[in-house]
Write a structure and sequence with these properties.
Structural class: alpha/beta
CATH architecture of the largest domain: 3-Layer(aba) Sandwich
Distance between the termini: 42 Å
Radius of gyration: 20 Å
Order of helices and strands: HEHEHEHEEHEHEHEHEHEHHHEEEEEE
Mean pLDDT: 87
CATH superfamily of the largest domain: Response regulator
Strand content: 15-25%
Length: 406
């Protein structure tokens, strides 16, 4: 975990200025960014912050937006709600036009409260608060994706059903002590019970370092399927502990707020690991990954480009699109008007993003992968499954290219 603390410290050196030396010369767009850069949640969010940074480095070097650079005022919140709220209060005092929140669900209430006080629109980089969900979303709250419990459980249970082949299932769910994580584990357990599966649910603090006792208790309960809900490297520790004790079951890893590539490569020879993510893995080395990798090399990304960096890159591209359409100066009324009618085709790496006045989240598509003789392959025939914020299945396709434009 110390590695991630170092990365967070490196990122904090950018806190009060523009991320890159700029070619743009006009007055800057000023944006606030609160992130979990250090502390237990950091592994799920540092990569997003870095992907966000390198995109804006590139944009500013190329002249910004019509000559206006994008200046990011960045603060670490460590995943602590009061700290994140204080960060947003500071941003408001500095006159930012928009706030990006890149942290755990525990910060959402405080951040939203400060957005309201400052009348500032907010984008949530990794998730989507309930306040962004249809049919009457909060006018200032927008989600760039959701790892909500209702959506995750569908993918998990589909993976379980596909791999169980009619065999009895005893499902274990481990949750970090965070609101959305706890809800996710509980909802999965209830849905699994309705499908005739036995379930065991456990909740742990984010700061836990030794998962051996938890792993032992799951093995004693004879679970044969397991998943973890929450950010950070706890999922890695859990899998390591289970396999060290000789467990032979199926581990379904939630990569919504975890580094997909690093974790999947950790267990490359284990064909009983399923992983799901919202972006095409960089392990596949698609042509579209190359631009991000090249920018990472040029602007000195502090970590390997992975699924989290890809997400951060696209959060920054979304911000650019909003600022372009809103024009200068970026007032709240202009920004919200643009955000209430935004469509961004993010393929081939992510599914399209669509916001409307009635839905500030849109559909999110999840892909399911597993290892097969050292190759990363789809875990299901239609391994891209689209889900809406209200649990509505938007569709199932075998590739992102098959998603119909809305």
């Amino acid at each position: 975990m110390a590695f991630w603390f170092v990365l967070g410290t490196l990122l904090l050196t950018f806190q009060t200025g523009v991320y890159a030396k700029q070619s743009a010369t006009k007055e800057p767009y000023k944006i606030g960014l609160t992130s979990a850069l250090t502390g237990p949640p950091a592994p799920g969010f540092v990569g997003i912050a870095e992907g966000f940074r390198i995109y804006l480095d590139k944009l500013n070097q190329e002249g910004g937006i019509d000559g206006h650079p994008v200046k990011i005022v960045s603060e670490d919140d460590r995943g602590v709600g009061t700290t994140a709220a204080s960060n947003v209060r500071k941003f408001s005092q500095l006159g930012v036009s928009l706030v990006v929140a890149n942290s755990v669900t525990a910060i959402y209430p405080g951040v939203i409260g400060e957005l309201e006080k400052g009348n500032i629109p907010g984008m949530f980089a990794c998730g989507s608060p309930r306040e962004a969900h249809p049919p009457k979303p909060h006018p200032l709250v927008f989600g760039c994706g959701h790892g909500g419990p209702a959506q995750i459980l569908m993918g998990i249970l589909r993976s379980v059903s596909a791999s169980a082949s009619g065999k009895p299932v005893k499902f274990g769910a481990l949750a970090a002590d965070l609101p959305a994580a706890r809800i996710g584990a509980d909802l999965t357990a209830k849905a699994a019970n309705r499908m005739g599966m036995e379930t065991v649910v456990k909740v742990i603090p984010l700061a836990i370092a030794d998962l051996t006792p938890i792993a032992s208790s799951f093995i004693e309960a004879k679970i044969n399927y397991l998943s973890y809900y929450g950010p950070g490297g706890i999922g890695d520790l859990l899998g390591d502990a289970m396999y060290k004790l000789g467990w032979k079951g199926i581990y379904i890893v939630n990569f919504v707020a975890q580094p997909f590539e690093r974790t999947m490569l950790r267990w490359k020879r284990r064909e009983n690991v399923f992983g799901y993510t919202v972006s095409e893995p960089t392990i596949l080395k698609l042509k579209a990954h190359r631009e991000i990798s090249e920018a990472g090399e040029k602007f000195k990304i502090t970590m390997p480009v992975d699924n989290l960096a890809v997400r951060g890159w696209w959060v920054a591209k979304t911000l650019e699109e909003i600022l372009k359409k809103a024009g200068w100066p970026a007032t709240t009324d202009k920004l919200v008007s643009v955000m209430n009618s935004l469509y961004l085709d993010r393929r081939p790496l992510l599914a399209p993003l669509k916001w409307s006045a009635q839905d500030h989240t849109g559909n999110v598509w999840y892909a399911y992968y597993r290892w097969d003789r050292g190759r990363l392959v789809p875990a299901l025939k239609n391994h891209w499954i689209g889900v809406g914020a209200t649990r509505r299945i938007a569709g199932e396709v075998s590739s992102l290219g098959d998603i119909k434009p809305e």
